[in-house]
Amino acid sequence: MKVRESVSPRLKRRGLKKRRFLIPALCDIKGLILRTLVRSYRPFNVFHELQKKEVYPHEIEKVKVITTAISKVFLTGKYAYKLCKPVDFGFLDFSTLEQRKKACEDEVSFNRIISPDLYLGVSTINKDGEGNISIDGPGEIIEYAVKMKQLDPALIMSELLKENKITPEHTKELAVKIYQFHQRALTDEETSSFGSVEMVQFNWDENFKQTERYKNIVIPENNFSFMQQKINSFIAKNKELLAKRVVEGKVKHCHGDFHSGNVFITPTEIYIFDGIVFNKRFPCSDVIAEIAFMAMDLDFHGKKELAEVFVKEYQRLSRDEDILKLLDFYKCYRAYIRGKINCFTSEDLNLTAAEKEKTINDAKKYFELANNYAGLL
User: Taking residues 1-18, what's their average pLDDT?
Assistant: First the structure.
């Protein structure tokens, strides 16, 4: 089924082009990923070659591969190598080698601001005259990869939350980390435009349009209508507040995907990773929308008390008097987005029955959470 997105001339000037999208769709941890045709690489499969130990310039025992809709990550024990898939989703275009090179360079440059020790640089994948493939080796450059220090997956915050290993002190440290990042984050005229009242309304209108088909399947119709009414009313009543946030420089190029699945908590350091760089519309937002993401995520994991500690610490550091005025609004937005993504993901034909059931149940839980936040507006 094809859906046309109608975009105003002003939004077009901000880079939102009118395109046709295919729905149902696939999504990963970075946001909405729409189903499309993936262009092939070269006569051989680069992804297959990178599963061979001899390709790497350091010793490894085995290679583990993580696949998302837009990337492949190769875990080698000491290092992780992340490659972009050659895809074009409209809002994300990795279809040429030069575009993938720039995407890798941008990812390293941006994420080094917040986790410089984690992002080591951009590696090349080379093919020599005899057809041998190597990383950072001789011959023609056929691909690029983000090279990262590999950390223990058991130390991802979302896993630690399940084991009740996250303490209030951890959340305070996390608040300090993201606050310090926000102090350095870019804010300019283009970035600020993504926090305008018009853009905030556009994002919500898009959410409701894209999820209308799930009414009475995943979202009860009365909840859908209730959230739509509460959100539109809140925006209408708070136009001056939202505009003030833009003028005060509170809209910045944030991380964009700040939840517990993108945080490592080690005994000595907290690493925030995987910030979004491929489309400014996703990470450029009010800083309150950023902290609302983590607070919502903690609520989702049943850690409301940790969410409160996190928000209070950020509030103490920033002295931002608008946080409590906008927090529930943006928590509702983040929960709704996660629900929407799970809806689209549930239609992936590659999911097992158990995976599909879990994805749908998570979507229902996110939408219920969003409905609860809407009730506080």
Answer: 42
H or E element at residue 181: helix 168-184
Of 310, 289, 300, the closest CA to residue 370 belongs to 300
**pLDDT (tens digit per residue) in 337-348:** 999 989 988 887
Say if residues 329 and 377 touch (Cβ distance below 8 Å): yes
* Coil, helix or strand at residue 141: strand
User: What fold does the segment set 155-374 form as a domain?
Assistant: Aminoglycoside 3'-phosphotransferase; Chain: A, domain 2 (3.90.1200)
Q: How far apart are CA 26 and CA 5, in angstroms?
A: 18
* DSSP code string of 25-76: -EEETTEEE---PPPP-SSS-HHHHTTSGGGSSS--S--EEEE-SSEEEEE-
User: Among candidates 180, 188, 185, which has minimal Cα distance to 318?
Assistant: 180
Please choose, from the candidates 336, 251, 324, 250, the residue with its C-alpha nearest in 3D space to the C-alpha of residue 293.
Answer: 336
Residue 3, H or E segment: strand 2-4
Degrees to nearest 5, angle at CA 151 with 146 and 157: 110
Distance of CA 320 to the CA centre of its chain: 24
Residue whose C-alpha is closest to residue 165's, from 259, 311, 275, 264: 264
Q: In Å, how far are 58, 66, 339 from 53, measured between CA atoms?
A: 9, 16, 39
Q: Measuring CA to CA, how many Å separate 265 from each of 30, 151, 296, 335, 377?
A: 20, 10, 19, 23, 33
SS3 (DSSP) at 187 = coil
User: For 303-358, what is each residue's pLDDT tens digit?
Assistant: 999 999 999 999 999 999 999 999 999 999 999 999 998 998 888 777 789 989 99
Instruction: List beta partners, residue 66.
Output: 73
Contact 33, 70 (CB under 8 A): yes
Question: Looking at the chain, which residues constitute the CATH 3.90.1200.10 domain(s)?
Answer: 155-374
Burial class (CB in 10 A: 0-12, 13-18, 19+), 319: exposed
Count of residues in the chain: 377
